[in-house]
Structures are given as C-alpha cells and as structure tokens.
Amino acid sequence: MTDAAPFAALKHSDDPPMRPFVLFEDGREGGCALLFEEPRELILANAPEEVASAFARMEAATRAGRFLAGYASYELGYALEPKFSAQATPASPTPLLAFGVFGAPRRLPAEALQGPAFEPIALTPVWSEAEYAERFRSCRDYIFAGDVYQINLTFPLHGRYEGDPLALYDALRKRQPVAFGGVVALGRETVVSLSPEVFFEAKGRDIRARPMKGTAQRGFLPPEDMNRAKHLVEDEKSRAENLMIVDLLRNDLSRLAEVGSVKVTDLFTVETYPTLHQMTSGISARLREDVGVAELFAGLFPCGSVTGAPKIRAMEIIRDLECAARGVYCGSLGLITPSGEVRFNVAIRTLTIFPGGELVCNVGSAIVADSTAREEYAECLIKARFLTGK
Questions:
Q1: Are 359 and 387 in contact (CB under 8 A)?
Q2: Which end of the chain, C or N, has fewer beta carbons within 10 A?
Q3: Distance of alpha carbon 213 from alpha carbon 303, whole angstroms
C-alpha cells in the first residue's frame, strides 16, 4: 500500500523532530521509500558495555515480528573488535547504535518525495590542504613501513542548516541518486544519507556486499565524460584500491560463511552519478546457520572501504590521525525485517544535523603508495559537491 499523506505530515520546523521516525529509500527499486513511524521502543547503545544487550534486544524484537530501522556509528567498530577492548573507544558524537522497533512501514510512492529546489550549503573544511598534507605524509610513512597497504583518511566539514531535514533530503536526492539512503530521526541528532554504496544485504542466509572504491570527476561534454569513465576502469591505482577492499571483504565474509561459498560476482564496474564516476565490485556468500545480527556486525563492521587494509591496523592509525570521531559517517544505516531480510548501506555522503542547526558533513579518500596529497584532498572536496553544489 502506498500513501503520500504521512510524508507530508512529517514536515516540521522544530529541532529535534516532533516525533521519532525513519525514512529509507532504495533507489534500485524505482525510488519507493519506506516510512517507519511511532516506534514501540528505542534501542540505544551509548557505550561499549551497552552494545551486547542492545544486539540482544534487537534479536528479540525481530523474533517478536517487529521491524528494526536505524544506524550504527563508525566507532561501534572499536567496541566490537577484541583487540581494542583494553583501549577507550573514541567518543562518538552520536550513539554507537540507535534503532527504533517498529511495526510494518508505509510505502511511499516516488512522487511523495518531491521536495523544493536544491539550495547549496556552505561548508568549511576543518583541515586546510596543508594540514591534510601533514596527516597524508604520516599515512604514507605507515604504508612504506609495511604497516598497511591502504588508509582511508577522512575529515569533517562544518556548516549550518536550520530547515526541515526531510526537505533537505528531498532536494539532495534530485541531484544524487541513492542506492540506499534516507533520514533517521530517532534522537537529538538527525542523519541524512545520500549513500550510493551498499554495505551488505542478506535474505535468508544469502548475503551480498558491494564495496565502492575509485573515483573520477564527471566530464562537461559526453566525449570527455566517457573518457573519464574509461580512464577510471583502466587506472591501475583505482583498480588496486578496489581490489584491496574486495580481498578484505572476502576475508571478512569467509569467517561468517559456509566454506567455499564466497564468490566475486563482478570486478571494477563503473557506476555513474551526477557529479562523479565510482568503481564498484560485487561479492556474494552463504552465511552459516549460527550467524545472527550481532555476529554479522562483529564480523563485517565497519566496512573495509572506509578503513583501509589491513582493517584493524588501519583503524588504529585512523584513530590516531583524524581530528574528530566520525559518528554516523562511515558507519551504516539500515533495516532488519521479521522475515530475516537485512539491508545496510555504507554511510558516505551522509551528514548529521545537531540541535541548533550545526551540520557536519565528512569526506575522505583512500591513500595508497602512489597517492599524492593534492589529488587526494581535491577528491575529498569533490565528494562534498552533492551538498555544496560547486
């Protein structure tokens, strides 16, 4: 059943939202959106010691026939990894886990999501190019020392937005098609995600992942645009970055999957968006019967495309070099159905709006041995164009 009225009813100007809700849109399904309203309860984990009980409550809710919708912050990965158990988890500006327990969602037609025209938002990077280059050199030192092969270095940009987050999402989705994005408004903060990257999706015991690594700016004219997409496919650096993450995710999935079931379905596929081209690859597997939601997150989270490889060492370096906790950015937004369907994105092109109108939008890129600071910093700023319009 579709119903446009509930979406209009969610329009508001108060901050935080007048009532908790989650809106998810799967761009691969013709733009149909799922609206989750009036949660029966909220499941939050604000500290590492609360994570296990939060997962247990989530499992119990799905067994009781409820839907779960919400997000996991990037810093949850530090709480889940035993190697970090003796160290303090970086303080996230958002809960480590935030999920609402809902009844069945309403399906909204694409025309219910037609919002106002896009108005660019001014953003100020926390790091100048020189400040970025200093951290970049540290990453290169770690790479040449053999600690890692790749590090995904990120930083925040700050702006302001005092309007309706749903209207902002409406406007942005016209410019940036989403694989799996939406709005999560379960607490003080509101998360708006225009992610083109699917982290993992499972139906029964079949699971698929689609890492995204490798970026090229769009061309102004069709011949130039086609050449840039062709160059991305042939670029050795981009292929190496992509392949590293494919191998990382294959390894992560192998710990959860039936022996011999992990397969690469495609490599180096270019997906085109309004402002850039991105390289993706596909991986599939068959999960073991004993794998539940807690095991999925413990085995896969965070996605290797936002850390680097090897993952654990890259996360250590990220914690030391980055200037702020990532929060929901590089975490994941998703839903879990009573039938066992699980769908989560990689929360890139994702911004968080805090009370008072503070807006934080993070960007990042993968650094490998032949990267240059100037090119990587420029790539980061390109990835903010979905919001700045530049």
A1: no
A2: N
A3: 12
- Phi then psi for residue 205, to 5 deg, are -110, 5
Q: CA 384 to CA 390: how far, in whole Å?
A: 8
Query: What does the pLDDT profile of the chain (390 residues) look like in tens digits?
Result: 344 343 444 444 344 334 699 999 887 656 578 999 999 999 999 999 999 999 999 999 999 999 999 999 999 999 999 989 878 788 899 999 999 999 999 988 766 666 667 788 999 999 999 999 999 999 999 999 999 999 999 999 999 999 889 889 988 887 777 778 899 999 999 999 999 888 999 998 999 998 887 777 778 878 888 888 887 877 888 888 888 888 989 999 999 999 999 999 988 888 776 667 878 899 999 999 999 999 999 999 999 889 999 999 999 999 999 999 999 999 999 999 999 899 999 999 999 999 999 999 999 999 999 899 999 999 999 889 889 876
Those residues whose C-beta lies under 8 Å from the C-beta of residue 193, and which sit 6 or more positions away, are 178, 181, 182, 183, 184, 328, 333, 345, 347, 349, 350, 351
Contact 151, 316 (CB under 8 A): no
- In the Cβ-directed half-sphere of 64, how many Cα atoms lie within 13 Å? 13
What DSSP string describes 219-241? PSSHHHHHHHHHHHHH-HHHHHH
Q: What's the rounded Cα separation, in Å, for the pair 179 and 157?
A: 23
Helix (H, G, I), strand (E, B) or coil at 67: strand
Which residues, other chains included, contact 263 with Cβ-Cβ below 8 Å and sequence gap of 6+?
A: 283, 284, 285
Pairing of strands 350-353, 358-367: antiparallel
Going along the chain from its start, the domains and CATH numbers come out as 18-111+122-205+291-387 (3.60.120.10)
How does strand 350-353 pair with strand 124-125?
unpaired
Report CA 180 to chain centroid distance, whole Å: 9
**What is d(CA 79, CA 51) in angstroms, rounded to the nearest whole number?**
8
Closest listed residue to residue 367, CA positions, set 240, 256, 231, 281: 240
Classify residue 324 as exposed, middle or buried by CB count within 10 Å of its CB (0-12, 13-18, 19+): middle
DSSP state of 32: -
